[in-house]
Amino acid sequence: MNQSYVGDAGLFLIESVVGFYLLVVILRFLFQLFRVDFYNPLTQFVLVLTNPPLKPLQQFIPGIFGFDMAAVVLAIVIAVIKIALIAMLKGYPLDMGAAVILAIADVLQTIVYIFIFVTFARAIMSWFQQGGYSPLTRLLDSLSEPLLAPIRRVLPPVGGLDFSPFVLIILLTLVLKLIVKPIADSGMMMLL
Q1: Which has more confidence, 90 or 76?
Q2: Cα 127 off chain centre by
Q3: What is the pTM of this model?
Q4: pLDDT for position 130
Q5: How far apart are CA 184 and CA 149, in angstroms?
Q6: How many structural domains is the chain composed of?
């Protein structure tokens, strides 16, 4: 069997498994930050998956100003592990400083992508779901409304159309290009 096929399969597994758990830990952080409904089924799923490593960490790493710093530290550690595994699989040398910077960029990128997805999903669901309660809708509202409300104050709906999701997605894309990408590039420069 060709070695590149095995390497590609290994990269896929690392990105899928470790990347999924990184996503879950970041969701845990965001759910706590935005005070998402604790009884929501997705919230319960995230809590069950993240409690084993987070409960011991929370004993040593206190929260600061409502931020669950244990979840932040765990997310960065998981991202560093992902980067280290990918570097090892590709045969690249690993500089720990570069790995931490790349991990921070990875965490920030994941957060931005979560908000882009949530905003897009909420906009699409608003076209089809008129009234009624849905746990998914409530979750999307809890995550997106704190970002959409300030935009609506500046740009109210025009003719019944709410352009705030469109504006938010543009702003989030700019965050990716102007903040996250330079951080990732500085980490990559340390590797060269």
Answers
A1: 76
A2: 25
A3: 0.91
A4: 65
A5: 30
A6: 1
